[in-house]
């Protein structure tokens, strides 16, 4: 038996290899591929390469190398093991392309990997049978997958599954590495995962890593999404105003009006100079008005400090009073928008005391002008320094003065003996301690003073001057040192100070440091205490800090950095972006009430001073609530709702929220349909483990993304494949399969059977064999018996999260049918068939598709309901009626009725191994479109192999009808004999019952001509009838009714099951015979022409036979059977004389598959020289005798003959070969 199966397997393998070769060199496929590359000139064809991908290591280890040459992990068509069997697989590259425009790549791979395990003796097939071929690597910004053709079985139903160019593995290229040397490109570090539609494992299960290389260019595509930081302003350059001169300027946008003031100093350095102020319309930078105001210097020179009230738009500066040298005036410049005119006037006057530096600022809280004056104080023949602070009320021209020096002295921890020395250190020269940029006002009205330099403490040690807080209490000034804010030490031994302070948008103070320090921070008052944020820096940037300013409406802070040619943008203590221009000139910068920023630049094409407006296009929202990662625990088969929340605030305009997910193995996120709210709730199961979620917010100016949140699911084992109940014949094995997925991984898998109400664990012994690896498990009941029928079984898996049981599967064991050693010959076998749901339905044209007995031309005159042993019946499941022409369409009007064709009088020959043939005589017709397109099937012939595979064939005749002229039909003249109408598997012949046969359809690929509607190979239930049957209907123009074409009627096209009924059949008394020497003694010597004497191994010709006849050649007395052959046109066959049969022999030629004297075509004596007549090896499959496989009439020989005949019929043409190979008929 094993020898026979080995022979069968080799035969089928050879046929499959031939089909692969034929398919590989299909000229239509090659032409389509050539056209595919001719897209655009930038795409580059790839060549000479390979990919290394083992699919899944545990899968390879589980399948193994196979036993006794059967099953295992097999590679072919160029695929090779990387090192040794079961190592990674190297697939040859057959071509592809690379497109540098978006770095998209396609690499087509050759090679076949075939994995087989769990051999089923009764079906001569493997329960686990998976084949990978035609792999394609596709990587682009839009997709990252390994596509391919997969031929296998569904893990729940064990039905055949064929995927053609479907995604098998998802690729995560986020950590991929690419190396290109100009000739070869190599990819590595690509992780792969099971896709959702691939049936081998659960979605997201990790596969082996992928690497590949090829001759040609390469590059990593950008699979990331373009997002903008939350809370980020987006600017675009807008208007420019060129003043026609090259003066240094300051810019002051108002907060109350859409006006921008530009201040220039004319003739700087002279003792008398001028401030030129220009009012610009903030919308288009047109000039609204201008003024020139004088500045006079006195004994202490000119101080160029300017203060600005952004609410009123008033500017303040000081100038020496006319005719005086130490009396100073504070001048206010105002702009009246009603008449577009400026004016200036004095608002305050004071006497200087030896001025070294005067600094002006505007206190928005008090609405006062602030004057900080450093001056010299003569003391004991040498100069010392002092400072005073004045708050000037502009409305009353009065001021409150504070002695800043005295307050400083009181606050500093110095000794009285060292007072004089400390005085000199305490107030270094102006410009070093106190300047315009170095003080600001806290929200409580107290003042921050940035200092520099050092002082001498009571121990005579030099100490760094701390920053100071100035508090104003009952007209008294108190100074508090601020600890921990300075100094800044980015590198050991190098210290820097904050060099600028400005009001932040949130009311705190924003500090910035210039030079290499590149440090920023915020300082504020909370509950009367100083709060200082952690300093932060911008990596790789050195700066020289200019003015800082803020936009309170959009919560943005800005610092102008002249050396970086950038305005830096901050929000909520975080750096976002820069406004950059190579034309920045000077350090003038400001922001208006609409968020637009203004800077000084070089005039277009000139070196003039100009003002550039940067329009605020909008601000992205801030993420107020980020989604959080979750870890959940699930019980067996359970699920749990998990909610992620993300919320955005602010931003310009409307922002649409959309949730996205990136599942394990995917390189990019994808939108979740309908998930557009603040919260996303999913029902999480084990398949969601490792998924990453985020929310996006999209508006007119771009998209903002939340943080990513990961879902970790720890779950009890989940049944990925339920065991199916098995119905077997006693003595044959029953194999049950189950698979589990889990996180963490499954720790233990075992099987149980139910006995006396309890489940009992099955231990491996001689009758039970359990195989388990990585969640896959099989139970084989090796020698089934009838008393085991009804046994209930289940698989059990456990991990740390729990225990899960599969559903129950039932073992049914039927007694083996007793077939005599010489077989059975049975008459009156009935065939009953409804063809398809399409035939049962109303057609698009006409009232019905109807059946008729005999040969029909579609007219009423040729309609018959009975013709010989053929009859048409209408059945409602309980009652059969015979229609006439008037009631031929009753099956359309009454949905409970099916029309059936019934052939009686069938003659069956059943061999001892269960293989069988059945022949019926007669014809019936299928009349499409109410008879417009009829065709006829004549003399059906059924063949079933011992393995349960088989075919239904018949002779076909019909008409060609053009759809453009359906009333005219042309008879088909080609011969359509022995056409395969149906193929099937898993059939066991019961000579006393009804055998129901379900033909193959699902997943069967068809070879469709280019001018016919193509086959659709996606969606549920796609498939085709056998190729030979389709070839016939390509001539009738009915072809698309027999394969999935994407139409609304696709679900009706599959063949219905048909019944072969033996219940009323009778034994004909004729038994299939075995060739024996007595057949030659009935006078049928014939006229065979053979040589007189031959030697073992000699090729001889046997003549005198009818040309074209299929024959069996047998050598007696050892009953050695040669392979079946066909007589040539010259009436001869050729054989090689076997060894071990020396002496006198008789050579006989029989009609194929026949025995007995009546079927002997001729015989002659044949003398074989040199050896004794014997069977040299009774067990040698290459040298059989009556007990060896392959002898016609023996159980194995009959099976082989039947198989050969089936294969001959199935593979009579290339189309049938391709269709059935892909259909999975011979999956081994």
Automatic annotation (TrEMBL):
GO biological process, one term: carbohydrate metabolic process
SUPFAM superfamilies xref list: Immunoglobulin (SSF48726)
Residue ranges of domain Htaa in the record: 49-213
This protein's record includes keyword Signal: yes
Signal peptide annotation: 1-31
Pfam name, any one: HtaA
Residue numbers spanned by region Disordered: 1062-1082, 1170-1192
Database matches in InterPro entries: Htaa (IPR007331), Ig-like_dom_sf (IPR036179), Ig-like_fold (IPR013783)
Keyword annotations of the record: Signal
Composition-biased stretches (Acidic residues): 1174-1186
Protein name: Htaa domain-containing protein
Annotated organism of origin: Corynebacterium suranareeae
